[in-house]
Amino acid sequence: MFAMTQTDTQRAGGRDAVPRSMRRSFWGAVMTNGAYGSVTGFLFKSQRRQFLLLASLPIFWILFANIGPILQMVRISFLDSYPPTAGYQPQLTLRNWNNFFAERIFIVPYFRTLAYSVVFTVATLIITYPVAYFLAKHVKRSSQLLFLLLLLIPFWVGEIVRTYAIMILLGNNGAVNLILKSLGLIERPIPFMYTSFSLGVGIVYLTALYMLLPLYSALEKIPNTYLEAAADLGAGAWTRFRRVTLPLSKEGIASGCTLVFLISTGYYAAPVLLGGPSTTVFAETIAGFFHVAGDQWPTGAAFSTIMLISALVIAGLFLKLMGRSGKGLMQ
Amino acid sequence: MSNDAQTIVHIDNMTKRFGNVAAVDHLDLKIRAGEFVTFLGPSGCGKTTTLRVLGGFEMPTEGRVILDGADVTRLPPNRRNVNMVFQDYALFPHMTVGQNIAFGLELKGKTKADIDDRTGELLDFLQLGGFRDRTPDQLSGGQRQRVALARALAPDPKLLLLDEPLGALDAKLRGQVQVELKDIQKRTGKTFVFVTHDQEEALTMSDRIIVMNRGKVEQDGTPEDLYFRPQSRFVAEFIGDTNLIGGTVRGMENGSVLIDWNGIDVRGAAHGHRPADGSEVTASLRLENVLCHPQKPSDKNAIEGRIVNRLFKGSRTSVDIRVGGEGALLKAYLDPEDAGRIQDDRLWVSWDALHLSVLQA
Amino acid sequence: MTRNTRILMSVIYWAFVVYLFVPLVLMVTMGFKDSKFIGFPIRGWTLDWYSEIFRSDEVLGAFGYTMAIALSTTLLSLVIGTWIAAFLGPHKFRGKLIVFALACMPAVIPGIISAISLRIYIQFLQLDTGMAAIILGHTIHNVPFVALVVMARLATLPQSHIEAARDLGADQFVAFSRVTLPYLKPALIGAGVFCMLLSFDDFVRSFFLGSYQPTLPVLIFAKLRSGMSPEINAISTVVLVITAILGIWAERSMRRMNKGTSV
Predict the structure, then answer these.
(1) N or C: lower Cβ tally within 10 Å for chain A?
(2) For C134-157, what is each residue's pLDDT tens digit?
(3) Shortest CA distance from B150: residue in chain A
(4) What are the pLDDT digits (tens) for B149-191?
């Protein structure tokens, strides 16, 4: 009973007019196929070869798709002309980088972007922290999903549509002005649009989820017993928040702020649509170099590189700061 | 040696190192066809590594594995005729019981009719008849274990490897499955290589037990050998409860070894070796081999003692007995009958000299 | 927490929900307004804007274009992302953390810089702006999300399942196809829908990498620059409905995956 005969298998060898029951399964046919065997025999010959095979596409992709564009951008930023024109060999230059320091119209948007991003990040944190706290600590575990889903739905809607929605909300004939007017608080509509206020409302609207989710998952992990223990030891609500909840949600704050900061430095459509001349951000400055004649590309590349480095350095410093003080509080 | 007709596997001087640590250290042994062999030892002793080397999941650092006369040391698992029952059963959750069992047959290129027949045969054999179209999450622990067994048996392996397959079952079921597993092994006539840290499981099922410790074999023998004639302190302590008696060899008397144990003369047996006179030795005496007598028995070797501690364990009472002078303590079991007849905690103990096993190390 | 703070918290939560939904509700409402003028008051209702956009070649063209890009992007991202996860998930090697960070990099690079660097890169690759360039850009951006989701799922696959398949005669490829892939299915569906969503919604990359044919977000942007109109509301509402459906679908399959029992 436990020994199998080989004859059944051999019978299945012929291809034509073989009854269904005498056929092999798809994978059986694959495994017993000679060509497949020699290909896999070659590919999987050694552990080393298997590893290289598995590593091939990821390594290629990371080099080609992730590092390639950034390296090209940095390279272009040192050229005096790009895209290449026939018969001219681009020369290396630092001119594009110097442009940044030469003109006020470049430096101001740069610092404005960083300042906006910091302010919007802090605003997002302050707005979403109680929301995340409420979700994690006051909503029953079984209904948390539903409450979270309610917040998620608006965030699936893309950047442009949501920006447009904010435009309708804040417009001179928008809902806010309508309500204020009907309450008799104002006579003429307040011009919210095309100011740093409308931009702020828009950016917070766009980024809130990236803050909310890390905060929620950090807060959700804090056992309620910690807070009860603190209360038992006589800590009031504020003390419990400051000494227990806040330090333990630090990780969520750190990653949420980093994400929101990085993302908000990169918005282009929202500032264009919601902001005005006095709120020009660096993304608009950079984009400008790509709309006009070709030889501005290198300057755009240099500025993009400056922006990328600044954003990453600030995010890195911030993370490091949070890490350090986090340790200090633990001791 | 490896073409010995009886030998199905020869682990030839095999060493497996992880970094600087030798998980298995120069292991050399042969497994005969049709044997139920158990590797027994504490976690980290190298038993699972040995099994994984047999399965092809680990490549030995040194040495060879000869399977049925062919060197399979460097062959991957899919190219050796060995199958494994995993600790967590590793049933494919997206396949039915029938598909799980058919998996190995399919990949061997069997025809659909063959696969159907064989699967049905195994389902019947393992009493899984009505479960063919169920998925693993609809089965109980014991049923899953049988499906894993059926799946591993399906491709007709030369060797069936079982990696602690009873660990996930509750204690009650485990005893029943032990009997079933032994029965299945007998009926199929397959060579089973079983790995466990549970000495009781090993004693119940195995034809042969290999006790491992720190990558080396401590003792290799039948369950009876290991239990009653342990050769090392490790084996004596690892399997069952035992008294370890340290003393000086005084000589031989009527084939028994005479040992001075804290001033008391005790008789024991050295299995397969002869300790030198005057040497310090350790001997093992199983608790159940200590005979307790409420009155002084006729056996002139009986020793008088006093119970210093009792632990009631239901069917019997476990007692600590102080015998002779200072520090000579003996653990033993007391029948409820005897327990009632002992007065003032005084009693006599004796044992068959064969049961006091003088250890080699 | 005292009763008062609890009430305050819930008020903040619901205020936040209102903040999230009101702009969208307004936007949808204005799409039914019987006037070219966006804003209050509303005097009449109409479905004309919808019938107009469903007859507009411009809108339908953009919709088809966006869908084609989203589908291609999703397919590519799934293959590459899964491959990266299969490589980075189970293997230990020196410098793995750096490789991992580099693999995730496109997900955190600010949008405008991602778009600009890609615009320069396709020039370098001598790839014209247009569909292929957008697909490349979206794929680069989406792969890290797929890789992360698949890696999370892969981490819960018991090693013994692969070993069991190998033990029963499967080579690496067959074991992957027959055991790993079915196990990854919920993650692949979730990540795939999420990719569709990201690609369908993306503006900045589509804007800089696109040619004359706009994607839906780019079309909305272009129309907005020449002023608001209920037609834009109608298009945006269609986009909103599609993304909400995709989003709920993605969410559902991810939840099922996290709940999913493995035997």
Answers:
(1) C
(2) 999 999 999 999 999 999 999 999
(3) A2
(4) 999 999 999 999 999 988 878 888 888 889 889 999 999 899 9
Structural domain boundaries in chain A = 23-76, 103-330
C-alpha C144/C-alpha B336 separation (Å) is 71
What is the CB-side half-sphere exposure of residue B42 using CA atoms within 13 A?
7
Q: Does A219 touch chain C (CB under 8 A)?
A: no
Instruction: Tell me which of C12, C100, C117 to substitute to probe the interface with A (most A C-beta atoms closer than 10 Å).
Output: C117
Of B127, B151, B16, which Cα lies nearest the Cα of B73? B16
Residue of A nearest to B107 (CA): A28
Per the rule left: phi > 0, alpha: psi between -120 and 50, beta: everything else, C76 is alpha
Cα C83 to chain centroid distance, Å, stands at: 19
A103-330 folds as: MetI-like fold (1.10.3720)
Q: C177: which residues sit within 8 A by CB, 6+ positions away? A: A27
pLDDT in tens, B97-112: 999 999 999 988 888 8
Touching check for A9 and chain B: CB below 8 Å? yes
- Answer whether C161 touches B (CB < 8 Å): yes
Name chain A contacts of B116, Cβ cutoff 8 Å: 21
- The token pair at C255 is 């939840």
A270 touches chain C (CB under 8 A): no
A148 in contact with chain C, both atoms CB, cutoff 8 A: no
Residue whose token pair is 């807070």: A227
Q: Which residue is closest to A300 within chain C, CA to CA?
A: C116
Report the residue from B89, B93, B103 with minimal CB separation from C168: B103
The region that residue C184 occupies, defined by phi over 0 for left and psi between -120 and 50 for alpha, beta otherwise, is alpha
Q: Which domains does chain C have, with CATH numbers?
A: 48-259 (1.10.3720.10)
CA distance C263 to chain A (A): 23
Helix extents (H) in chain A:
7-11, 26-32, 34-43, 47-61, 68-76, 95-102, 104-133, 141-156, 159-170, 175-182, 196-220, 224-232, 237-240, 246-248, 250-265, 269-274, 282-291, 297-330
Residue percentage of chain B with pLDDT more than 70 = 98
Q: Are A27 and C178 spatial neighbours (Cβ–Cβ below 8 Å)? A: yes
Q: Are B322 and B278 in contact (CB under 8 A)?
A: no
Q: Crossing angle, helix C230-259 and helix A141-156, to 10 degrees?
A: 140
Q: Does A215 touch chain C (CB under 8 A)?
A: no
Structure-block tokens of residue A284: 């608009």
A82, A298 in Cβ contact below 8 A? yes
Residue B291 to chain A, least CA–CA distance (Å): 48
Most confident of A170-174, B298-302, C142-146, C227-231: C142-146
Q: Given C168, C170, C261, which is nearest B137 (Cβ)?
A: C261
Query: Where do the domains of chain B lie, and which CATH numbers do they carry?
Result: 7-228 (3.40.50.300), 241-358 (2.40.50.100)
Q: Which residues contact B340 (CB under 8 A, 6 or more apart)?
A: none
pTM of the model: 0.86
